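seq/struct pair 1
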Amino acid sequence: MKASTTKKRRAARPRRLFVLDTNVLMHDPAAIFRFEEHDIYLPMVVLEELDAAKKGMSEASRNTRQVSRFLDELMRDATREQIEAGLPLPSNLSGNHGKAPSSGRVFFQTQHLAGALPDTLPGGGNDNAILAQTLALQALHTDRQVVLVSKDINLRIKAAVVGVHAEDYFSDRSIEDADVLYTGTKALAEDFWERHGKDMRSWKEGPRTFYELTGPAVTSWTVNEFVYEPRTGGLEAIVRKLQGNTATLELVRDFRGERHGVWGIGARNREQNFALNLLMDPEIDFVSILGPAGTGKTLLTLAAGLVQTLEHNRYAEIIMTRVTIPLGEDIGFLPGTEEEKMEPWMGALMDNLEVLTQSAEGGTWGRAATNDLLRNRIKIRSLNFMRGRTFLNRYVILDEAQNLTPKQMKALVTRAGPGTKIVCLGNIAQIDTPYLTETTSGLTFVVTRFQGWPHAGHITLVRGERSRLADHASDTL
């Protein structure tokens, strides 16, 4: 029933012809497979630009080479007549998350199309050539809509001026709006227990307390999501298991206050307490923590890592890494070893280590000795040398993860071996990479893809805990 409804809906939609700009293919090599039943047109100038951009070790160059391999597979053993009629796109491509499989065709420019540009667009640039091709296709295919797809804002503006319908490329986005990104928490309604407490049962397993309950609200929950009552002293629990409209909850540990804290650091609000529960849980292999500056992401993560590495011996060492993108002008090459080159980028690590060691006994010498001990168990590594590595029993902290592309995020997470925990920290409102947005960031990608996996957890921190000055600056600046 559902399949037939989908076919009817797709048949009712007019079949469109999408003209792809080069930057779309360089951004997402699988873009030609993401337009469902619609057709794709590739002008000859796009193939020329792909050929010019294929050399190099950059992300764009690697994507360009992958596009060429995709096109080569499509054209294998194809005759001239088949190319002119359009090559069918495969319908079994993996990675079309949530989208209908491809059923359109890809067309190459096989003949000269005369498209007259207005006199206001002089010159023979590649963008103008693509515009001319699109205008010619509009005149040739009057029975269907021709759409130019480009990530170049100026080209889309020029297209609108000359009467060409242009769109940005959206299919690579994990979510349509960063404001609806999964937060990892859900508040319970005031009448929750009246609707869900009738057949509830509870039990204890050592120090852990579990509840099993049934009701309509359960269907909107996710495994490892935190649920809580907004009132003071209300229930705070994590969803451990879901089966239909029945859920198993486990009460969270309370890490508030220094007595119950981790490495002398106690949670100052509800979200920080939830974060420490994820960080200290040995069954959670991947944790993502989002939040603006000053919410305690790095401090909590480092404190949990030190306790589990030095006291519990759960991990052999802590590895910290991040993307090296300067906030201002680049100061040039840095001297020294890999760790010495990365040290200026790890100011957050040094700042938080000072906080974690300020209460060390023995005065200045005691703090210095503690710092040396901790630094021996904390390694700073560059992302550039992660390819081919495998981390065994390591606590890996990826700072500023919002600056990673989805492909880079996948390359890092797949480095994890047995016994390794990866913690991704970031703030999608502070993306420094020029070609990433809140919806295309690798951090957004991994949060969305790992949602509901029993060994992954996510939490968004909302309250700054640095100082009243920092809180006021975050609110007003």
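seq/struct pair 2
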Amino acid sequence: MLLGHGISYSASPAMHSAAFRSAHLDWSYELCDVPPEGLAAAVAELRGPASRGANVTIPHKVAVMPLLDGLDDKAEAAGAVNTITRAGERLIGSNTDVEGVRTALAEAGLEPAGARVVVLGAGGSAKAAAVALKGARLTFVARRPAAAAGLPGEVLGWDDPRWRALVGGADLLLNATPLGRGGELPLPATQLPRDGAVIDLVYTSEGTPFVRAARERGLRCVDGWTVLLAQGAAAFEAWTGRPAPLAAMRAALVR
């Protein structure tokens, strides 16, 4: 199950359903579009014996935390949860987005230590990115800077012109906002990093405008499909205790 709101675009059901079939598990994975006021009731349903857990996405990754019985180290460090596992009568929150971002960093060939990084966003995905980017010099760009309390590094408002000046010389620009799903470009292509890498956590069938612009400029670029697969594989392993069937999951995403 995926708990979120406004998530009809999600490819997670196809990916996880393929994983369960490949592993010969008679399990199902469904979207559960839940407005904020319905989150507590949806989480309570996960306590039933038929449930193994769930994924959590926007806008619930932080709000879900007090509804759980415990958090693992990555969820504690990130201050956000994207995966819930039922352990007996307890619901444990974890954050496999951290593994997803680490996989993207490796694919981009970027070592976080000392890297100059601009992260667009300050929500649950940005919090996971901060854990994966430990040791980097981080700047977060937030529409509501007050909501970014606790993030390591500098936080600038979206209307603050200083962050755009930082992007050109950044070693990495990471988009952790939903911008791009509707065809938006978070900033003009001419303002992308001159020599740095780009990671976009958003995925679309044709590639987001952000990803397309970065690739046209010859920048090292990793899109949200890579992150989705890596975090999904880590969630599968948390629920089942088995290695994830990556080939089947990747093929489902390609389809």
